[in-house]
Structures are given as structure tokens and as C-alpha cells.
Write a structure and sequence with these properties.
Chain lengths: ~450, ~280, ~300
């Protein structure tokens, strides 16, 4: 018994040391916070010296394939050739790894000079003081946004200041397989006025004629489109609660899905749960006629067409076109701990507006929106890219502006949504119960 | 006569079962090999086929090419560098500490042992941020130091493992050694170390494999492409939300297994044949 | 037997002891102490990683135990996993190690084959491969169909009712490390002892129970303790294969901890969870250590079980 006591007195001692160390931890943080504020003043000092002195800037970006890394690397080489005094050190990671890495760096005030930030996070990053405003670089044309429809750049504004430069445009798309529709005698979805009833009917026809599944189940991104079709939003303006009062919206969305599931018009949840990669879904494998899984027009179109080895059709989701929206694929921002914001801005300008860079990127991270760049690269568009462009034009003409970025608690809300959707599809929960629970869980997370 | 043949029959069944089960165990490896030879569009659409339609050796070429102008040759070098130093550090520090905990009665021994066990119990996820802050303060980001230097403090898992093995060595040995005038350090180096070779090799093999496979620490601490280790580089080839060259990815996964398997096969006999040949009681 | 501090100083073992643990101790102070206490501090704060932590006292702990159904769920899932997977893996590893220790043809090759799954760790290949084995059209379901004519349309890893069970099977399947440690331990048992028993006419079962098991007990103890600690900290398998889903059926404690810390940006809450886990596991481990004097047989009498 004595040894246990000994061990626990040891633990207690450790705890005691820990508590005294807390004071230290606190002051530590205060000092790093101050350090965080200084770059803003030193920014103006470094600016004059920037053009001659050799400078290394760090650029972190989202990438997880040889293809993307090489495309980015090409742009860096072109940039370094154009600005011989600037060296670029690139860092990359993908998916959750990227988020983890950025968070860890942010906690140590060690973010790269140029950071790639997703639309869903920009507001949170800005409110925590991690990014610096870019307006002065736009004003002095270091970043030249002239001639660009403000629709494409205003999305990077928080409280009327620009914090992120849109890398390229993207939109959710409902793919369809023209051959399969033709075989089933189903008409391709109309550019406008394609209704949910028509969609359901078409899925049924496809199943009756070809004996294959119509589509996959819909999730949160399609639900948000559905809400937008009903002039509602997922979050309210204050972002401390859901943005719609009528739980009937939730119930109807999932009742439709359940009905399709029961008629076996959708691939079984079990099949969908086994999808491991973009190339692995029922649509790219040729097992369903429609691909509404949550594909983005940008990088996904080429993959799907390559996998199916055919031209696919692009359609808006069923329902009123106003549900559709254009999303910036990513933003480039400059971290507030950057010591070389001017050079960082020069890199952003090059990445966004240089025609050779755009050619090298090939629309991979989203579609270019600067008319000058578009004019420069147009001649080299692949057929897929031409279809993507036509689709983005359709979204722009029929859709409505994107909803404000999600609040910090957004990922908690998404987890709740995902879990509830799963329980509904496994029929452990009715849509009405799900609606109630989602409201309760989401509001709790948002109020925190 | 009857008894022995019965026994032989039993052994036959046993052998068959053990070998049959072994096939189940290596199924994933066979699958990995086969996927590394499939065209990238076939990896998922033909996933159930163990023998590819065509042998697509190009995967190995396009994978080995790497990215950002750095081939896998460099990544292998980086991995070897990090792994070898980590193994050396871990083995030295762990055997030393284990010897103290197992054999020396010194004040505070129980306290420090308890501390060591506690460090094993805290989920490392909550240590990521302060650890990064620390290495950032030391200016060690984008160097191999954060991956190597902590190994020279040993590892709690290995220290505990070695303690357990050392405590299996009869204590009379210490006493007779002491009578012979053998000091602690000499006893440690000349008698204890040879006796626990299996445990030391186990430590080295585990540390090698775990360091080789680890991608999270390299992900956090290594920024530039030319610093990437093999596991990090492979991770940089797969993005479930983008177009991925799966064939090349699996090809490089196969290659990355080669050193690990080689080390295991080369050293396993030391694990299982160490002491029984030396003969303790002799 | 109380010693005074002076006697301590004169004790040569003290210098030897600290000399031998010096590298480890230095590492503890330089690399671990700050992160550990920082996380302890964070557990009493509201910390979103991006801005400075705010002291909130015991709020995190209060929320955990009174107002967080997912926390409760994660505790249940993890306890179930530990209770089933840890003993199963231990027995399996010991059985295989004992088998491979026998004079079977090609034992060396077999050892490598059995260790291979462990070598492959948690790579992408393993995820896809498990899909191939236990997916809807996987090898297992096809096997059942062709041999027994049973139609199964369950995706074992992703179905809510079977997901946790599948993860347990996976963890048992990766028994290689424990097996290797057992093998090393078995080889340390002097062959002369077993031969002597054989001469005395003892049966194989008797020899295993009366000679092998007691002599192997320090290593069994090690694998048990590490199995328990590792079991409570289980993360990668679940994260890679199920991500905690479907709807939290495999929400292991550390997955939820990670989700809170890095996805929801409640790092303070995550840290609090880590310390609750540490407390629980250390109590359990202390009990196992206590029990060791009853069943662990040491050749040397160290201090630990005193």
C-alpha cells in the first residue's frame, strides 16, 4: 500500500508544480500577443527596403497530390524568375492535416507569410487577428483587382476590409451521365426550371429502364442549397442560432431523401459509406446516372470525366436556381506575423493575375475570374474547362450570392448534422425527431 | 509408436492451420502489391481483383519521380537519417534508464518511475501545441532536430519494456559479479547488455518501424519538400478530394515497406534466439 | 528503515542511479515538462488555439460530466473496446507466440508473415484493404455466400451495429508487437528448466502453466499494462477507418478529444478530457501494479512491488 501512496504523492507534487507554472504560462501568452501586434507597424518600414534586399517568404497551401504540388511549384519558379530578390519556401498539406498544421503554427505565431484560407474559416481567422488587411496593397496596385467584377473579390471582405484574395471560382454541381439518360429515355435536366418532382420522376425512370441507381444521398451542402431555395439560411445573421424557424424545411428535405431511399432510387447508405476516394463513388464508377454527391465544378470535373472516360453533363441541383452559388475555392491571405507583407502581396498578385501562372495552374484550384486572365488563357482551355466555364456562367446568372462564412462553431454544427443524417438514413430516427435534435444541438454549439 | 504418430498428425494439422492463417494475415500486402501494378483508374473499379489486368510498372517510375523536383531517393535518405539516429538514441538512453530502474535502489526511483508511467498515459494530442511552441522557440522548425533529439532521452514504453526483461534476470548474478569486484557500469555493459539482447533488438526494431511510419511529427515540423520523409511524401500523394495517382501512391507504399521488412527479417533472429543459445544457467 | 538525508548523500547507488537515468531525466525536463503542465493549465481554460486562453476554473470538467452526451458516449465506447479488445489481443498474441516458439517447420518465415500486418501500420492501403475484406462485396461476405449460401448485405466496418466489433477484430489482428515481445520473453526462459520438467514426465499443459507462465509473467505484465494504456488511448484505427462514425458508434475517447481540440477549437476542453483520462488510467494502472505481487514472478527483487 505504501508504494501507491508514494506514487500518488508524486502525482500531487507534479500537480502542485503545474499550478505554479500556470502563472508563467499566462504571462507567456501576453508577450506573444504583443509580438503579434508589432508586425503591423514594422510593415511600413520593411516596405521601402523590399525591392532590393533578398527576402524569403513562406507560402503554405493545400495540396495532396504530385499534380497539385508540381503545378504550384511551377508558379513559384516563374515568380522567382520575375522577382529575383524573393525566394519562396512552400509548405503544403491536405485535408485535416492542413488544418492541424495551420492551427499549430497559428498558436505559435508562426504562420507562413502567405496562407491559404478556406471560406469557412476566414471570418474566424480575421476575428482572432491572424490576418492583415490587404486594402493598402490593392490601393497601390501591388494586388491589381481592377476590371474584376466585385462579386468575385468582395467575398474576401470582413467588416468592409479585404483579408483574402479569391484564388478561383467553384460551384457545387449535379453531374449526369448523358448516355445513361438517353438510354432510359430521360431528358437531360433543363438549364432552368428543373424541379424536385421532375428529379424524382427521372430517377424512377432510370431505375425502371436501366435497373441502376439514380443518385447518392444528399448531405449538408445540398441541404444548404435547399434552404437557399426557400430564402432561408443555415445560420442566422448574428450566427448564434439556426437561420430558419420552420423545422418543416428539415423534415421535408429528409422525408424526400428517405422516400427515394425506400424506392431504392439512391445507392444504399452502406455502399456510400465505403467510398474512399473521389474516384471511388458510384457515379465515377458508372453505377449511377446522376452524381449529386457534393462534387465541385473545379477540380472534380476532370477526375470524373477521366474515370468514366466520357463527357458528363453539368446541371444545377433540382429546385429554384437561386439556391446555387459561386464559392471562392480558397483565399490567399497575409498573416499578421508576416515580416514581408509587401513581397507576400507581390506573390498573391502574381498567382492571381499572371497569365503564365494561370496557364500552369490550369484552373486546378478554382476557375480564374479576372477578365484579363481569362482572355489570356481561353485559347488553351480543354473541353472540360469549357464546360466548367459554361456551368459557372449558368450559376452566376441563376444563383444568388453565397451565404456569409460559417461561424467558428460551424464544424460542430456540421458534425451534428452528419450524425443525425446518418441516424435518419439508418432509420433510427424520424426526420421530424431529427429536425428537433438538430435545432437543439446546433443552437447549443452556436451559443457557446 | 501409436502415440508418436498421433502426435505427428496433430502437428500436421497445427502446421496447416498456422500456415493457412498466415495467408489471411498477408492478404493486405498482396493486395497492396497488386494495386501498385494496376492502372490508376483500375485501382478502385477493379479493387476486388488480386491479379491486375495488365502489369503497369510505370506506377513505380511516376511515383519515384516524386514532386517539386525531388525524387523518392531524397525522401528515403531523409527517412534513413531520421530513423537511424532516433534508434541509436532511443536504445542508448532507454537501456541506461531501464537498468537504473530495474537494478539500482536509489532514492526517488519510485517517484521517477511513476512519472515515466504517467507520461505514457497522457494523450499526445494535447501536447502538440506546446511542443511546437517549444521547438519554435528553439528555432528548430524545418530541421530534423525535433524528430531526432527527443529520442536521445529514450522512450517510456521502451524503458518499461527493458525494465521488465532485466527483472527476469536472476539477481544472484549481480551479487556474484559484485563479489568478483565488478562495478555497476562494468556489470551493465559486460553482463546485463548481452543478456537482454532480445529486448534491445525488439526496442530497436520497434523504434525503427514506428519512426519510419510516423508522418504526423514530420508533417508538423518539416516544411519544405526537400525535407520530407517517405511517410510524409506518401501522405502528400493522396488527397481524397482531388485527383490522385493511386497506382503511384501504392507503388511508393510498397517501396516504403522494403526497409522496414528488411530490418525486421534481418534482426528477428536476434529477438528470438538471443538468450537461449547463450545459456543462462551454464 | 528510514534514512536520513546524509545517508542518502553517502549512498553510492544514488549517484549511479541518477547517472543512468540522466539522459531520460534531462529529456523529461527539457521536452516534456513544459508541454505537460501547459496542457494541465489549458484544461482550466477556454482556449480556441487562435487566441489567448481564458481561465474558467472547473467549467470544462463540469460540462463534461453534466452536459455532454457525446462525452458519455465516448466513454462507453472506449470502455467496451478496452474490455474486449485488450484481453483478446493479449491471449491471441500469447497463443501465437507459444505456437511459433514450438518446433514448427518454417517458424522463422511464419514469424515474419504474422508480423507483417503490424508493419503495415495504419497506411492508406490498410483502410482500402479492410474495405476489401469486410466491405459489402468483400472477401468475407463472398466467402459466406459461396460456402454457406448466406447472403449478407452488411458493410461490416461502416454499419452502425457492427462497426465497433470490426474495429476490435482489426486491433486483435494487429497483435504483432505484443507477439514479438512475448517471443522475446519466451526465449529468455532457460531451456534447461523445461527439459528438466520434461524428464520428470510433466505434460505440455502442466509445463506451460507451471514453468512458462510464471517465468513469462513480467512480460505478460508489461503487455497487459501497455495494452490497457494503449487501449484507452486508441485513436488511429478508428480515425482512419471510421472517423468515429457512423453516428458516433466508434467515437473513441481520444477521437472525441481530438475532435474537440482541433476541429471544434475547444482545446481547453480537449486538455481537460486528457487529464481526466490520465487520472482514470493511472488509477487502473496502479491497481494492476498492486496486483502484480500476486501473480508476477520476478527473478530479481526490485523495489516496485515493495
Amino acid at each position: 500500500m505504501r508504494s501507491i501512496k508514494k506514487r500518488y504523492s508524486a502525482i500531487l507534487l507534479l500537480l502542485a508544480i503545474g499550478l505554479t507554472a500556470c502563472g508563467g504560462g499566462n504571462t507567456n501568452n501576453a508577450s506573444t500577443n504583443e509580438a503579434n501586434n508589432t508586425p503591423k507597424t514594422s510593415a511600413s518600414e520593411t516596405k521601402e527596403a523590399s525591392s532590393t534586399e533578398p527576402v524569403t517568404i513562406r507560402v503554405s497551401y493545400w495540396a495532396g497530390t504530385q499534380l497539385t504540388i508540381d503545378a504550384h511549384d511551377n508558379v513559384v519558379k516563374l515568380f522567382e524568375a520575375a522577382y529575383p530578390n524573393i525566394k519562396v519556401q512552400s509548405e503544403y498539406a491536405t485535408g485535416a492535416d492542413y488544418t492541424d498544421k495551420i492551427l499549430v503554427q497559428a498558436a505559435s505565431k508562426d504562420l507562413a507569410d502567405v496562407v491559404r484560407v478556406d471560406y469557412s474559416q476566414i471570418k474566424n481567422y480575421v476575428s482572432k487577428g491572424l490576418l492583415q488587411p490587404l486594402d493598402e496593397y490593392v490601393a497601390d496596385k501591388t494586388i491589381d483587382l481592377e476590371g474584376i467584377n466585385p462579386l468575385h473579390t468582395d467575398v474576401g471582405k470582413v467588416d468592409d476590409k479585404l483579408y483574402g484574395v479569391n484564388i478561383g471560382n467553384n460551384a457545387l454541381v449535379l453531374f449526369y451521365d448523358p448516355d445513361k439518360l438517353k438510354e432510359a429515355g430521360v431528358e437531360a435536366p433543363a438549364a432552368s426550371g428543373y424541379t424536385w418532382e421532375q428529379y424524382e420522376q427521372d430517377l424512377q425512370t432510370v431505375k425502371d429502364k436501366l435497373g441502376i441507381y439514380g443518385d447518392t444521398h444528399f448531405g449538408q451542402s445540398q441541404y444548404e442549397i435547399w434552404l437557399r431555395q426557400h430564402d432561408a439560411k443555415l445560420y442566422n445573421d448574428a450566427q448564434d442560432g439556426l437561420g430558419y424557424e420552420d423545422d418543416g424545411l428539415f423534415t421535408e428535405f429528409f422525408e424526400t431523401q428517405l422516400r427515394l431511399q425506400k424506392k431504392e432510387l439512391l445507392t444504399p447508405v452502406a455502399v456510400e459509406s465505403e467510398i474512399k476516394a473521389l474516384e471511388d463513388g458510384p457515379f465515377p464508377k458508372g453505377n449511377s446516372a446522376y452524381g449529386g454527391w457534393g462534387y465541385w465544378s473545379g477540380s472534380h470535373s476532370a477526375v470524373v470525366e477521366k474515370q468514366l472516360n466520357k463527357v458528363v453533363g453539368f446541371s444545377l441541383f433540382p429546385g429554384p436556381g437561386k439556391g446555387a452559388y459561386i464559392k471562392p475555392s480558397f483565399f490567399h491571405g497575409i498573416s499578421s506575423n508576416s515580416k514581408h507583407p509587401k513581397e507576400a502581396a507581390q506573390f498573391i498578385e502574381f498567382y492571381t493575375n499572371n497569365i503564365e501562372a494561370a496557364k500552369s495552374l490550369d484552373g486546378y484550384f478554382g476557375f480564374p475570374y479576372n477578365p484579363k486572365v481569362l482572355a489570356g488563357v481561353e485559347s488553351e482551355f480543354t473541353d472540360t474547362q469549357k464546360r466548367v466555364r459554361a456551368y459557372l456562367d449558368l450559376v452566376e446568372s441563376q444563383g444568388s450570392p453565397i451565404d456569409p462564412p460559417a461561424p467558428a462553431a460551424g464544424s460542430e454544427v456540421s458534425t451534428s448534422f452528419k450524425n443525425i443524417a446518418s441516424e435518419i438514413f439508418y432509420e433510427k430516427l424520424t426526420p421530424a425527431e431529427g429536425a428537433k435534435r438538430f435545432r437543439q444541438e446546433a443552437n447549443k454549439a452556436l451559443k457557446k | 509408436m501409436n502415440a508418436t504418430s498421433q502426435k505427428r498428425g496433430g502437428n500436421l494439422w497445427l502446421s496447416a492451420a498456422v500456415w493457412g492463417f498466415a495467408i489471411v494475415m498477408i492478404y493486405p500486402l498482396l493486395w497492396l502489391l497488386s494495386s501498385s501494378l494496376k492502372h490508376t483508374t483500375e485501382v478502385y473499379s477493379q479493387a476486388h481483383k488480386l491479379i491486375p489486368a495488365h502489369f503497369y510498372w510505370e506506377n513505380y517510375v511516376s511515383g519515384f519521380k516524386g514532386f517539386a523536383g525531388h525524387s523518392f531517393f531524397l525522401f528515403f535518405q531523409n527517412s534513413l537519417y531520421v530513423t537511424i539516429f532516433s534508434v541509436v538514441g532511443t536504445v542508448i538512453a532507454s537501456t541506461m534508464a531501464a537498468y537504473a530502474f530495474a537494478r539500482i535502489r536509489f532514492p526517488g526511483s519510485a517517484f521517477w518511475f511513476a512519472c515515466m508511467m504517467l507520461t505514457l498515459m497522457l494523450p499526445s494530442e494535447v501536447l502538440i501545441i506546446p511542443q511546437y511552441m517549444l521547438f519554435n522557440k528553439l528555432n528548430w522548425i524545418n530541421t530534423f532536430w525535433p524528430l531526432i533529439v527527443p529520442s536521445f532521452a529514450g522512450g517510456a514504453f521502451f524503458i518499461f519494456l527493458l525494465v521488465q526483461f532485466m527483472r527476469g534476470i536472476p539477481v544472484e548474478l549481480d551479487e556474484s559479479a559484485r563479489i568478483d569486484g565488478c562495478g555497476r557500469f562494468l556489470f551493465f555493459a559486460k553482463i546485463m547488455l548481452p543478456l537482454i539482447v532480445p529486448a534491445i533488438v525488439t526496442t530497436a526494431v520497434f523504434k525503427f518501424i514506428w519512426t519510419w511510419d510516423d508522418y504526423f511529427a514530420p508533417l508538423l515540423y518539416l516544411n519544405s519538400a526537400e525535407m520530407a520523409t517517405v511517410s510524409l511524401a506518401i501522405k502528400s500523394m493522396a488527397d481524397p478530394t482531388m485527383e490522385t495517382n493511386w497506382g503511384a501512391l501504392f507503388a511508393m507504399s510498397v517501396l516504403s515497406l522494403v526497409p522496414v521488412v528488411a530490418v525486421f527479417i534481418a534482426f528477428q533472429r536476434y529477438i528470438v534466439e538471443g538468450i537461449s543459445t547463450t545459456g543462462l544457467k551454464g | 528503515m528510514k534514512r536520513t538525508s546524509k545517508q542518502w548523500l553517502r549512498n553510492p547507488d544514488m549517484y549511479a542511479g541518477y547517472a543512468f537515468i540522466f539522459p531520460w531525466l534531462l529529456g523529461l525536463f527539457v521536452f516534456s515538462l513544459f508541454p505537460i503542465f501547459f496542457s494541465l493549465y489549458l484544461s482550466f481554460t477556454d482556449y480556441d488555439i487562435l487566441s489567448a486562453p481564458q481561465w474558467i476554473g472547473f467549467e470544462n470538467f463540469k460540462e463534461m460530466f453534466t452536459d455532454d452526451p457525446r462525452f458519455v458516449k465516448s466513454v462507453k465506447v472506449t470502455l467496451l473496446y478496452v474490455a474486449v479488445a485488450v484481453p483478446l489481443r493479449l491471449c491471441f498474441a500469447l497463443a501465437i507466440a507459444a505456437l511459433l516458439n514450438m518446433k514448427i517447420k518454417g517458424a522463422r518465415a511464419l514469424r515474419s508473415l504474422y508480423y507483417l500486418p503490424t508493419l503495415m501500420g495504419g497506411s492508406v492501403a490498410v483502410i482500402v484493404m479492410w474495405g476489401q475484406l469486410f466491405g459489402l462485396n468483400g472477401a468475407f461476405n463472398s466467402f459466406m455466400r459461396s460456402i454457406f449460401g448466406i447472403e449478407i448485405s452488411i458493410s461490416w466496418i461502416t454499419d452502425p451495429s457492427t462497426a465497433l466489433g470490426s474495429l476490435i477484430v482489426l486491433s486483435v489482428w494487429q497483435f504483432g508487437s505484443a507477439m514479438l515481445i512475448f517471443l522475446a520473453g519466451l526465449k529468455q526462459i532457460p531451456a534447461s528448466l523445461l527439459e528438466a520438467a520434461l524428464v520428470d514426465g510433466a505434460s505440455a499443459a502442466y509445463r506451460f502453466r507451471r514453468i512458462t507462465l510464471p517465468l513469462l509473467s513480467p512480460v505478460i505484465f508489461f503487455n497487459l499494462v501497455m495494452g490497457i494504456i494503449g487501449g484507452f488511448k486508441v485513436f488511429s484505427e478508428g480515425m482512419i477507418l471510421t472517423g468515429g462514425g457512423p453516428h458516433d458508434q466508434t467515437l473513441f475517447y481520444v477521437i472525441y478529444l481530438y475532435e474537440n481540440s482541433f476541429r471544434f477549437l475547444h482545446m481547453g476542453y480537449g486538455s481537460a478530457m486528457a487529464w481526466v483520462l490520465l487520472l482514470a488510467v493511472s488509477i487502473l494502472t496502479a491497481l494492476v501494479f498492486r496486483s502484480s505481487s500476486l501473480w508476477v514472478h520476478y527473478e530479481s527483487k526490485g523495489e516496485r512491488e515493495a
